[in-house]
Amino acid sequence: MKLCIAEKPSVAKDIAEVIGAKNRKDGYFEGNGYWVTWTFGHLCTLKEPHDYKEHWKYWRLEDLPIIPEKFGIKLIPNKGVEKQFHIIKRLVDQCAEVINCGDAGQEGELIQRWVLQKAGMKVPMKRLWISSLTEEAIKEGFENLKNADDYLNLYKAGSSRAIGDWLLGINGTRLFTRKYGKGENTLSIGRVQTPTLAMIVERQKEIDAFVVKEYWELKTEYKGQEFQCLDKQSKTLRLDKEERTKKGLEYLQGKDFEITSFEQKEGKEGNPRLYDLTSLQVDANKKFGFSAEQTLNYIQNLYEKKLTTYPRVDTTFLPDDIYPKIKPILKGLKFYSKLTESLLSKDIPKTKSVFNNKKVTDHHAIIPTGVQASNLTPEENKIYDLVCKRFIAAFYPVCTVSNTTVFGKVGELVFKASGKQIVKPGWREVYASEKNVKSDEKIMPHFEEGEKGPHKPFIHKGKTSPPKPYTEATLLRAMETAGKQVDDEEMRDMLKENGIGRPSTRANIIETLFRRKYIEKKRKNIFPTPMGEALIRTIKNDLLKSVKLTGEWERKLRLIERGEYELDTFKSELEEMVKNLVEEVVFDSSSRFTFTAEKPKRKISKKNLDFKKVSCPKCKKSNLIKGKTAVGCQDFKNCDFKVPFELMGKKMTENQIHQLITRKKTNTIKNIRIPGSEETKDGIFVLDENFNISFVDK
User: Fold this and answer.
1) Mean pLDDT of 375-386
2) Mean per-residue pLDDT for 548-555?
3) CA distance 632 to 629
4) All CATH 1.10.460.10 domain ranges in the chain, comma separated
């Protein structure tokens, strides 16, 4: 008998149906010369420290660094896991050949090989490598089973990643918790988690340090078109004093506006790239507010429903051998027939922006399979719509635009206006019905070089803006490009090699930071919590927080995957870093238990203290208003929310009231008098879920 082992019961059922193993047994299917069984994702994990040495169970600085001579694996302690593993082991002992049918990726390879290693497999093994779970794909996969040795480096890369995370996670977390921890705080350290948190904290520092500055710009309107005054370097002229701008305005009065140059160039907007997992998560966050983890779950469900291809990918290209399948897939998208009709009436273009064998690694971009969609949740339908429209748009004609640049002058001052018009929408037609698509830019009038006429000069007053907080979309991009802000897709492709985390793990990293209360979300924006900021302040070792170093590790993991770097070398480098880190922290002259989660005092601008711009946290309908004795809801007849200026005999500053309302707690306030006694204590005021204010002794 041949034993097929899949990663989930549902996938095992699909495979069993296709290959004829239709007899259901306890924990597997049987028939046509096959057994088909399954794992539940991870059945095995790396051993814990106390599995190697009993005394490693205790968190003691003197035991660090913890580096096993040889890493081992064990079953995850769970009755269901143990039962299924014993079924797998019995089948492994009796079969003639194993076919690894796990998810076709690094994590899937690791999951299955750990189980088979634990089960003591000694028979030959083949690999089922498919990009979708349709009947056609499964049949084709079994007709072209791969040699399992071809994927040995993929397993080595997965094993290296797991060992690296274990070494840094176990040692770093115990080291910082015992050296700097306070009370019950566990200071969690991670190979990707810590530099990701450092990026978020660094962005918050930039926001806090930013000083808003006012500026004035000189503009004019000619024939209904707005023109911007330029400086000598042909950049937008921004003045820091209103008086200078007023002098410029006076200079413009009574003088004609003259067109010195009018240029129109036809350009092209290339088709949007097909989705990889990160770009799908970015768009889903921007358009629907879905978290990275939610999007991963929805696209995984679509994959298992046979509607889309394998999702955990980092490429936006297709291999050449997919080209003959494009028309059949388009024909299968019945709901999108109005969009596919024009494509199906002629040959599908085979462009380099879509087909590139060199840019495809384990899997190709995420595309629909052409299977008819049904029984989708509203969230799954939104993700499916993104994938289908992106797939269709990739084969439409390019969008043709007209780019217009106009220069003019008034006396010695130079002005500029630019605009873009859509000439032929091309691929934009696919998105024409979407409400959130920007309408075409205002059509610019035609100008003749040398023409003159009256104009309407004016002054525009503006303010400089601080850096924007991360959203999940921008954080995913920053992780993908090792912290660099890059819009160009080709440049982004080059930086992916050194991105931190993998497409399949970034969502989990972000969720881990939320779960450990190192970051928090306000609307779509992500901010570090006091705990997260304090942790990054505590870590003095820059390498541990370095996005660049973590990106270099990721590059080496990819090299291991390609057989160009050794697992043992990677492991030795990490061990050396852990040893140096332990030595550095243990002999740090700072006292133990110095860690504090107290938020550093920040300057709160007058803009933030404008309570009229703060929504009432209770009714969420009206904004707040500042009275003589309290800050409260403007709709005081229907909502009783208010925070008095005096609490427990302590006069509150506007800053402290703002903290209490917006962050649900204040910073530490000293010498608060306890009611009914002469005693005073330091503590914070907290606004609970019922909008009651209480005092917490620090």
Assistant:
1) 95
2) 84
3) 10
4) 160-209+468-586
Q: What is the 3-state secondary structure (H, E, C) of 241-283?
A: CHHHHHHHHHHHCCCCEEEEEEEEEEEEECCCCCECHHHHHHH
Joined together, the tokens standing for residue 118 give: 């634990």
173 sits in which H/E element: helix 152-180
Residue 371 — pLDDT band, cuts 50, 70, 90?
very high
Report the topology of domain 277-393: Topoisomerase I; domain 4 (1.10.290)
Q: Which two tokens stand for residue 260?
A: 């010195």
Report the candidate in 159, 158, 175 with the shortest Cα–Cα distance to residue 106: 158
* CATH 1.10.290.10 intervals, the chain: 277-393
Which of 298, 297, 306 has its CA nearest to residue 373? 306
CA 529 to chain centre: 18
Homologous superfamily, domain 160-209+468-586: Topoisomerase I, domain 2 (1.10.460.10)
Q: Which two tokens stand for residue 81?
A: 């896991």
pLDDT at 601 (0 to 100): 47
Report whether pLDDT(434) > 90: no
Fold adopted by 214-270+399-463: Topoisomerase I; domain 3 (2.70.20)
Q: Is the whole-model pTM more than 0.85?
A: no
Per the structure block, which two tokens stand in for 510? Answer: 């972000």
Name the residue with tokens 């080595």.
156
| Tens of pLDDT, residues 631-681 | 888 888 788 888 888 887 788 888 888 888 887 888 888 777 666 555 677
What is the bridge-based pairing of β-strands 2-6 and 34-38? parallel
Burial class (CB in 10 A: 0-12, 13-18, 19+), 53: exposed
Judge whether residue 610 has pLDDT over 80.
Answer: no
On the 0-12 / 13-18 / 19+ scale of CB atoms within 10 A, 300 is middle
Question: Cα 672 to the chain's mean position, in Å?
Answer: 43
Reply yes or no on whether 34 is catalytic.
no
Instruction: Quote the distance between the C-alpha of residue 428 and its chain's center.
Output: 26
Are the beta carbons of 110 and 76 closer than 8 angstroms? no
Catalytic choice (155, 298, 310, 384): 310
Numbered ranges of CATH 2.70.20.10 in the chain: 214-270+399-463
Taking the C-alpha atoms of residue 301 and residue 307, their distance in angstroms, rounded to an integer, is 9
**Percentages helix, strand, coil for the chain, rounded to the nearest 5?**
40, 20, 35
What SS3 class is residue 18? Answer: helix
Instruction: Determine the average pLDDT of the residues in 530-556.
Output: 88
pLDDT in tens, 575-607: 999 999 998 888 876 544 444 444 444 444 444
pLDDT band at 17 (very low <50, low <70, confident <90, very high): very high
- Record: fold of 2-144: Rossmann fold (3.40.50)
Q: CATH 3.40.50.140 in the chain: give the residue spans.
A: 2-144
